[in-house]
Amino acid sequence: MSPIDFDFLKKLYSRFADSPKDNSETDKEKIQPLPFTMADEDQRREMWEETGNLLLKQGAVAAFTLAGGQGSRLGFEGPKGAFDFGLPSHATLFRLQARRLMNLGAKAGKPIPWAIMTSPLNREATVQHFEEHSYFGYNRDYIRFFDQGMLCALKPDGTPLQDENGDYVEAPDGNGGCFRALAASGTLAWFVEKGVRFLFLCNVDNALVKMADPIFIGALATSGLPCAAKVVHKKSADEKVGIFASRNGKPCVLEYSDISDALRTTTNADGSLQFDGGNTGMYLFRMDALRKISTQELPWHAARKTVNGVANCWKFEQFLLDAFPFLGKIFLFGVEREDEFAPIKNATGNDSPEVARKWLGKLHRFWLEKAKVRIKPEMLYEISPRLTYAGENLSQEVFDRELGRGIFEFPA
Ligand code: UTP
Fold first, then answer.
1. Element (H, E) at 260
2. Is the CB of 318 within 6 Å of ligand 1?
3. Which of 56, 74, 303, 356 sits 20 to 30 Å CA-CA off 31?
C-alpha cells in the first residue's frame, strides 16, 4: 500500500467542505447536443471493418477492462467479472470478454494485449478467478493486471477515518484513476512496446460488450479524431443514463442530474430527443490521446457515505468521463442496445442478471434465425464466442454439431 498523502486529503476536504458544489453545471456554461449516427446505417461500415481488421492483424489494438469497482449495487461477494449470471454455460463476465478477444485474435493471427485494472481490494480474487480457469486459454504473455489507486476516507470533520485496529480506511479512487494507474503501473509502456496504437476500454459488467470491435476501431482510425465512444438512443427522456453532449464547445458526459428538465426533453422536428447519446461505457482511444490524459489532473468529486459504520464520511473519486473535455473532439458511434449493451448493475429489476441473460439469449437466437437455422421459437440461445464473434460463421451444420457443447438453449 502506498503512503497516505495527508496534505492532499486536507486540500481536497477544504475544497469541498468550503464549497459543496463540485463540477456541476453553472449558468455561464453553454450546453449543446452532440448528434450521432447509427453505425449500421453508415455507408463506410465495410471500409471501417476492413481497416479495423487490418489494425488487429498488425497488432495495433489492445483492450482494457475497468474492474476496480466495488459492485455494491449488485451485492455479489467476489469481483464483478467473476460473476456467473446464470447462462447455461456458466460463463462469467471475464470469460465472455476473454473469449471474444480470443476469437478476434485467432482471426487476426495475433493475440490482443489485454489489461485489467483491479483495486487492492479485489486484485487477489480476480487473479485467482483467472488462475482457476487457466486464464480461459488466453495467452498469458498478453494479459496484465494492475491496481488502481486508493484514497483514505475522511470522517465528517475532515480527519482520516480509521478502523477498530487503527488502520486507515481506504477506497478505490474512482474509474478516472485508470489513466494515472495505466502510466504508473508501466502498462502504457507495455502497450507501446507491443506496438499498440488504439486502446479499446470498457466496463467489466456489460454482458454484450463487443471487445475490440473491428468496425469501431476502423471508424476511429479513419476519422483522425483522438477518441470514440459507443452510444445508444435513450429509452426515454427520463432514463437515468449519462449522455454525451457539448459543454462550452468540448465533449462531455452529462449525468441525469446535470441537465435541466427543459433541455432533457427538447426534441428535434421529427420528435426524437436532442440530448440522446446514452453512454454505454465502451470507448476507444488513440495511444497519444491516452498519454495526454495520463498527465492531466482530472477533477475530483466528493460523496458523503456511510463508511465502516460511520455516517456522512467523505469519499473522493475521479471519473473517467471527465477525460473527454481534455481531448477536444470525439467520434460518437451509435449502436443498437439489443446488440451491444446489457450492463449488470443491480441484483434485480433494471440492468439485472436476469435482463442480461435474456438479452444475450435473444441476440444469439436472432443470429441463428439470420443463419436460417431451425430453432425452437420459444427458446433462447447461448452461443460460445469460440464459434462466432457477432453472428458470423453460423449454419445448420454448426448448430447440429455444437448443440449442447458450444450452443445451448434455455427457456425464455
Ligand atoms: P460503476 O460506476 O458501475 O461502479 O463502475 P461499480 O463499482 O461497478 O458498481 P457500484 O456503483 O458499486 O454498484 C463502472 C465501471 O468502472 C469500474 C467498475 O469496475 C466498472 O467496470 N470502476 C469503478 C473502477 O474500475 N474503479 C472504481 O474506483 C470505480
1. none
2. no
3. 303
- Give residue 28's pLDDT band: very low, low, confident or very high (50, 70, 90): low
Is the model's pLDDT at 65 over the cut of 80? yes
DSSP summary character for residue 300: P
d(CA 346, CA 402): 32
CATH 3.90.550.10 maps onto the chain at 10-15+26-235+278-350
Half-sphere exposure of 315 (CA within 13 A, CB side): 18
Q: Where are the alpha helices (DSSP H) in 63-177?
A: 93-108, 123-132
Q: Does the Cβ of 80 fall within 6 Å of ligand 1?
A: yes
Distance 24 CA to ligand 1 centre (A): 21
Rounded to 5 degrees, what are φ and ψ at 407? Answer: -130, 130
Question: With 90 as the cut, is the pLDDT of residue 85 above it?
Answer: yes
Q: What is the pLDDT of residues 371-401, one digit of tens each?
A: 999 999 999 999 999 999 999 999 999 999 9
Domain 10-15+26-235+278-350: homologous superfamily in CATH:
Spore Coat Polysaccharide Biosynthesis Protein SpsA; Chain A (3.90.550.10)
Per-residue pLDDT tens over the stretch 235-249: 999 999 999 999 999
